[in-house]
Structures are given as C-alpha cells and as structure tokens.
Amino acid sequence: MLKPKARFExxxxxxxxxLKENNIKAVILDVDNTLINLDKEPLENIExxxxxxxxxxxxxxxxxxxxxxxxxxKVAEMLNVPYIYxxxxxxxxGLKKAVNILQEKEENIAEIGDQLFTDVxxxxxxxxxxxxxTPISGEKTKLGAIKRKIEKIFLExxxxx
Length: 161
Ligand SMILES: [Mg+2]
Known about the structure:
The chain is of the alpha/beta class. The protein has one domain: Rossmann fold (3-Layer(aba) Sandwich). It is 42% helix and 15% strand. The chain contains 6 helices and 6 strands, in the order βαβαβαβαβαβα. It has helices at 16-21, 46-55, 69-79, 92-102, 116-125, 142-160, and strands at 6-8, 26-29, 59-63, 83-84, 109-113, 129-133. The chain has a 6-stranded parallel β-sheet, with helices on both faces. α2 (46-55) links the parallel β2 (26-29) and β3. The longest helix has 19 residues, at 142-160. Bound molecules: magnesium ion (MG). Residues 30, 32-34, 113-115 line the site of magnesium ion.
C-alpha cells in the first residue's frame, strides 16, 4: 500500500514515453508541493510539461486535498485542466470523481503526488499507477516535518528491500 510504482525527483522529469510504456492514458495531479511550492510558485516548466501530455492525448485532472478552492482553481486555470479540491485522498471519494472526469480505467491512470500517506496510498487503493515525487519545498509546519520523517523511514526501508 505504501510503495509507489515509480519515483521521480520532479513531475516534469516524467516523460510521455514513460507514461505510454506503462499504459497510462490519464494522470491525476496533486497540487501542493507537486505543481506549486508553499509560496504558491509553479514548478519550472510545468506548463510545457502539461502541453506535452495534451499533445500526446494523455488526459489530465487535478485532485488536491486542499480546501482552498481559489488556490486549486487558479492552478487548474493556469494549466487549463479540470480540478477537484478537498479530494480527501487517500479516501476513494475524490479520486473516483477524477476517474469520472477522465473516463479511463483505473489501471490506465497514474496518480502523481509528493505524499506517501495521501497520494500513494490513495492511488494504490484505487489500483492506479502511483508515482511519488520529491516535495518542491519542505513542509514548514511542525506536523509536516514529523510526517516527512516518518515517510523517510518507510522509503529507506523500501530501498533496502
Ligand atoms: Mg502534495
């Protein structure tokens, strides 16, 4: 459940070739620390990356756990893709909504995000292709820092296996 199918440093490192080789026809994107940093600055080249996917007919939907509709909506508008906010990952509710928008089978959908406990578990529960990216910027809150530490322990264990 905790193991991502693939790991990348940043979302823009994921090539359309890689997605196609893994039969991915659609992607669900996390927002915070995946598309934008904590100062709401978009990741470098993210617009080009999205354009590349669109060109290759790979569908895109944003699913963010953020309750800030305006913030998520702004990112979606910048990239011109549909979005779901307050998506309650790792619960299935929001991801099911995304599947409904994308109209692809779960096995052909990659869920891309920076958090094991929301993005990766959510994707794995839905039998989607989970891709973990490194957070753009470190969490500033204390709780976030603790979460990161726990994630690190899990990821280091997986490396050994
Ligand atoms: Mg995130």
